[in-house]
Design goal:
- By secondary structure, the protein is an alpha+beta fold.
- It has 5 domains: 132 residues, Jelly Rolls; 93 residues, Sandwich (Immunoglobulin-like); 79 residues, Immunoglobulin-like; 271 residues, Alpha-Beta Barrel (TIM Barrel); 78 residues, Immunoglobulin-like.
- 17% of the residues lie in helices and 34% in strands.
- The strands form 11 sheets. It has an 8-stranded parallel beta sheet.
- The relative contact order is 0.07.
- The protein is built from 13 helices and 46 strands.
- Helix 6 packs across helix 8 and helix 10 crosses helix 12.
- The protein binds alpha-D-galactopyranose (GLA).
- The site of alpha-D-galactopyranose has 10 residues, from loops.
Length: 732
């Protein structure tokens, strides 16, 4: 019994010591405005009111927009935090909306985001947690210390908002940061430390075995090396990475427990180059309503110049033989069988095709580009034109990409005197843009909201539905993305919360769109509320977003792609598609600052494969003018895209979900089946292909088509599916 009491006593002593490893502070003195003197440790802030650090200042009756506010956080730091190897203290401030500079006892210790007066101007970092390190020698142990935080707020809301501020002993990842970046086939590591320390680096390179088609990577013997780190000095090392190779770097510190690790995978191209002879890569069918303009560009790859011909054209439709662009209109409903022909110096290609003049458009999912995932609210007509021109010059239009969609931020601050919507100064000539696109067989898309405001805070369509539909028609708009956003205000104010009240704004716009003398693809964007897939057809929508916004992380792709689409396959079909949001490959950024997608190369193969299987809208989200070979290979594989554009229009079903492996399959119009075998695990997994196919009832096959590699591969073999990667095959 005595032993038990002593054990309990020791346990609680250890626990309270452990608890004393940090101090939390929930409020601070606060003042609006900006004054350099407020950073000083001795400044008398006793007259300043107290604000909570767990709620933004707007929720506490303070409003500051495009201006500054200062917090002064007082904290007694117990000397128990002094013990330990590092001699450093961590200020864990949490996220701050939008940019900050922070002083500890009068000394500047950190800055995140930037202010309008900074050389590059203002940039928000509202969601980034601030973790600043201070030297333990600067702490006044067991006495009052002051953390002064200067905050700039670009727009509502502002300030600290998430959680109490924490002062603690830093961990390894607070002191040392390790990053890996790659360009082409080389990988660069940067190691930084906030203190003098040392440790061991372990570098593992994996590469494919020459001549082995299984996809297995062989891990070379790790290279181990000692490193010495000191503050302000960066350790930079780089290694060549073999094609399709990967590199893993691990750092273990001599003073801190734990380890840091990072991986880099080199992009690798699977799609074989297109032949120089003409090859058709587009959809096999095109739907247009009687009397509506036919806008269609023949999608042939191959060396240019090319001359085009179309056999069987109905009256009213003409072909531009040097551009391969169809225009005109057809009065009579009916299926018109055509033969699309292209010739160049190397030969000729012919493709049977159906022009379907009837009530239904979007007979295959839309393919094109949208400005949001790259430019966000910084979109301009010039940037849109750059992507549109590159769609043609870089050859993406030869694979069926046709829509050029302007997302939010084209709208002026106010409507014209007659109530009509107008473009802001970034879009000097929207009609001119439409005319240029149509002349090249491409189509113009636009964005608005049924509310008074869009998500980006621009003018919405509320109470101007008819007028806006007419204006868009006059500009030549062929696609409308109609985003709920500001409509939530209207919705909140009404007592009716039934499905009908979700349908209402979309039904209203549908009526006016259909009154226009052109086909306008109707894209609903309301994130899947009220099971939109069950009533999207009823408002004649051509697609509906099924989830919130995608971003370029595995978490987002996994959640949207693998968790949220499984039950939706019954609702897709020609004319009506589930939309899991736009593509996040290539250079994205949602702002003026673009960067490479943060998805690994294998995650990007998975993304495009899954979107093809899901018969999803294929809207490229990167700047096409800056497209690289790897991204082109992802977007322009004719066999992969043929699955997305298959005229049966059946969305894939998830057949197997076990041990982190998923098999999705979709039947195709030619009687074949497209199958994706996905590895969602964090390690590579060897898969016996015959065994995997048997799980979905496919036996007795000797070869199948590997769609990415465009190669027949034996079934009786083991293939390594990389972590977060896929084998995409077709069975005839
Ligand atoms: C919402 C949509 C996005 C984009 C933005 C524009 O977030 O879901 O796709 O259109 O609005 O503000």
């Amino acid at each position: 019994m005595k032993k038990f009491v002593i054990a309990c006593y020791l346990f609680f002593c250890c626990l309270s010591l452990a608890l004393a490893q940090e101090v939390k502070v929930s409020d601070a003195r606060f003042c609006k405005g900006d004054n350099a003197a407020w950073s000083a440790a001795g400044f008398d802030d006793s007259a300043w009111p107290v604000l909570s650090l767990e709620k933004n200042w707007d929720d506490q009756g303070v409003r500051i927009t495009e201006d500054y506010g200062w917090y002064r956080i007082h904290v007694v730091i117990p000397s128990v935090l002094k013990n330990g190897a590092s001699g450093l203290v961590l200020l864990d401030l949490g996220p701050i909306d939008d940019a900050d500079q922070t002083w500890f006892n009068g000394q500047l210790v950190g800055k995140t985001g930037s202010m309008p007066d900074d050389p590059d101007g203002y940039s928000s970092q509202w969601s980034t947690p601030r973790r600043y390190i201070v030297d333990a020698g600067k702490v006044r142990w067991d006495k009052d210390n002051v953390i002064a935080v200067r905050v700039y707020n670009g727009g509502d809301p502002g300030g600290f908002f998430e959680r109490p501020v924490r002062i603690a002993k830093p961990g390894l990842s607070d002191v040392v940061t390790l990053s890996l970046t790659g360009e082409k086939d080389a990988c660069r590591m940067k190691l930084r430390s906030a203190m003098k320390t040392s440790g061991t680096l372990e570098v593992c390179i994996s590469e494919p075995v020459v001549g082995d088609v299984s996809g297995k990577l062989e891990e070379k013997a790790p290279v181990v090396q000692k490193v010495k780190l000191s503050p302000g000095k960066e350790t930079v090392l780089s290694w060549p990475v073999p094609e399709q190779g990967r590199i893993k770097v691990t750092y273990r510190d001599d003073r801190f427990d734990g380890m840091l690790s990072a991986r880099y995978a080199a992009p690798y191209i699977l799609t074989p180059p297109a032949p120089a002879t003409p090859r058709y890569n587009g959809p096999l069918v095109f739907g247009v309503r009687p009397g509506s303009p036919v806008i269609f560009r023949l999608a042939f790859s191959g060396e240019k110049p090319m001359v085009y011909d179309v056999e069987g054209l109905p009256e009213g439709v003409v072909l531009n033989p040097s551009k391969g662009v169809l225009s005109g209109s057809v009065a009579e409903k009916g299926d018109y069988p055509l033969v699309l022909v292209a010739r160049n110096a190397h030969g000729e290609a012919r493709q049977a095709f159906t022009l379907k003049v009837g009530d239904q458009i979007a007979l295959t999912p839309p393919m094109g580009w949208n400005s949001w995932n790259c430019w966000g609210l910084s979109v301009s007509q010039e940037k849109v034109m750059a992507s549109a021109a590159a769609l043609i010059n870089r050859g993406l239009a030869d694979y069926g990409y046709a829509y050029i969609n302007v997302d939010d931020a084209w709208e002026a601050e106010e409507r014209a005197a007659d109530g009509s919507i107008v473009c802001n100064e970034k879009f000097p000539d929207m009609k001119g843009l439409g005319d240029w696109l149509h002349g090249n067989g491409l189509k113009l898309g636009i964005y608005s909201s049924p509310g008074d405001r869009t998500c980006g805070g621009y003018l919405g369509t509320l109470d101007h539905e008819k007028q806006d539909a007419e204006t868009w028609n006059s500009w030549g708009v062929d696609y409308l993305k109609y985003d709920w956003c500001g409509y939530s205000k209207v919705f909140r104010a009404q007592s009716d919360k039934s499905t009908a009240s979700y349908v209402r704004p979309y039904l209203k716009m549908q009526e006016y769109l259909r009154q226009q003398p052109r086909d306008i693809f109707y894209s609903l964007c309301q994130y899947g509320m009220a099971d939109v897939w069950t009533w999207g057809h009823a408002v004649d929508a051509n697609s509906w977003r099924t989830t919130g916004d995608i971003t370029d992380t595995w978490k987002s792709l996994y959640n949207i792609g693998f968790q949220r689409q499984t039950e939706l396959y019954p609702y897709a079909g020609p004319g009506h598609w589930n939309d899991p949001d736009m593509l996040v490959v290539g250079k994205v950024g949602w702002s003026d600052h673009l960067r490479d997608s943060r998805l690994t190369p294998d995650e990007q193969y998975t993304h495009i494969t899954l979107w093809s299987l899901l018969a999803a809208n294929m809207l490229i989200g990167c700047d096409i003018a800056q497209i690289d070979d790897f991204t082109f290979n992802l977007l322009c594989n004719n066999e992969v895209n043929a699955v997305n554009q298959d005229i049966l229009g059946r969305q894939a079903h998830r057949d197997v979900n076990e041990d982190g492996m998923q098999i999705w399959s979709r039947p195709l119009a030619d009687g074949g089946t497209a199958i994706g075998i996905f590895n969602l695990n964090d390690d590579d997994v060897p898969v016996n292909l015959a065994g995997a196919l048997a799980k979905i009832g496919l036996t007795g096959l000797s070869t199948v088509r590997d769609l990415w590699r465009q190669q027949d591969i034996p079934v009786d073999a083991v293939y390594t599916i990389p972590t977060h990667g896929v084998r995409f095959i077709k069975v005839k």
